[in-house]
Amino acid sequence: MGVKDYFFYSGYPGGKRLETAKELMKRRPTYVLEKAVRGMLPKNRLGREMFRHLHVYAGAEHPHGAQNPENLTF
Fold it and tell me: Could you tell me the pTM of the whole model?
C-alpha cells in the first residue's frame, strides 16, 4: 500500500469515504497531526481533557504572544 489513507463513514449505506494523507493535508492541514496525537493519548476522561488543551496551527502565525526572556549574567 505505502500511502497513508484516512477513512470516514457517515453512517449511511455507501457513506464510506477514503482520502489519502496528501489530499487531506491540502484540505485540512491540522487534522493529520491532531489525529496522530489523539491516538497516542489515553482513551478516557483525562485523554479528552488533554486533547482539549492542544492547539495546532497550519502556519507559523499564531495568536499567542512570546514570553520575552531576559539574559542573566552571574
Answer: 0.74
